[in-house]
């Protein structure tokens, strides 16, 4: 199902599609009826805990840092504290349908999944090792997001510099975007309703030196996306970590942990 096709469906057609999808995903999911009329409807995982997923239908998305976004960044500050070669070349890529959790998993979520998990701040994102993240995903029948999927979600069908647009919000507004407290950051959502984007998130991909198809791969190090909240309040040019295209290898993590936003593969070519 392409996003352009979904937009043309009537409500009864959308309901039939979602009901057919749930049959394929199993009885652990239900549809949020209030979101059926939206471009990114919500399905809810309901086994042990509730995880709200947004469907991102197949579409074309920019991947990497475009020339236009590079020029927008230069208007904020020059020189930029980024390695442009790691974020390029920019390309337009077809992104198959998938589902993405509205939020990263919180400590209270992990406490319901794993035994003997130490909860310090229930409403804060849980920082997990790669191994623990994989264990959690296996237990909730989910997977890591690919770097492409993460970027496609935060760009939300646009070529934008930041998830919140092409300019930095005022500091008073940024405090809500950068807050680790779910009760604050849940109020700062982008168009597809996902939030909590700046804590650094595990991706499925091994880290490559750039986006070329023949790029050198760094063995044992995975892509981490987002991370500006790590440095808040910013002292200098840490705003670059808000950029949709920004990335880092997991070997640069302070303690080897990052946050986890589950994804689900959406079946294709089924009748409804």
From TrEMBL:
Protein name: Uncharacterized protein
């Amino acid at each position: 199902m392409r996003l352009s096709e979904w937009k043309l469906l009537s409500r009864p057609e959308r309901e039939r599609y979602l009901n057919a999808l749930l049959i394929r995903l199993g009885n652990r999911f239900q549809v949020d009826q209030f979101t059926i009329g939206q471009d990114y409807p919500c399905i809810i995982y309901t086994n042990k805990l509730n995880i709200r997923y947004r469907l991102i239908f197949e579409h074309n998305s920019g991947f990497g840092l475009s020339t236009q976004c590079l020029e927008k960044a230069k208007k904020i500050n020059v020189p930029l504290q980024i390695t442009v070669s790691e974020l390029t070349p920019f390309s337009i890529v077809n992104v198959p349908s998938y589902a993405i959790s509205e939020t990263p998993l919180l400590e209270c979520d992990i406490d319901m999944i794993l035994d003997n998990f130490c909860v310090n701040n229930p409403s804060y994102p849980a920082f997990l090792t790669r191994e623990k993240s994989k264990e959690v995903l296996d237990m909730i029948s989910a997977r890591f997001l690919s770097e492409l999927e993460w970027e496609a979600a935060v760009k939300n069908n646009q070529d934008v510099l930041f998830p919140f647009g092409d300019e930095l919000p005022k500091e008073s507004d940024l405090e809500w975007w950068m807050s680790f407290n779910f009760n604050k950051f849940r109020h700062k959502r982008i168009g597809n309703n996902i939030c909590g984007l700046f804590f650094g998130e595990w991706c499925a991909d091994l880290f490559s030196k750039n986006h070329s198809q023949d790029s050198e791969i760094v063995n044992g190090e995975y892509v981490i996306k987002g991370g500006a909240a790590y440095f808040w309040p910013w002292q200098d040019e840490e705003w670059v970590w808000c950029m949709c295209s920004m990335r880092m290898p997991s070997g640069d993590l302070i303690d080897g942990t990052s946050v986890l936003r589950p994804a689900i593969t959406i079946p294709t070519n089924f009748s409804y």
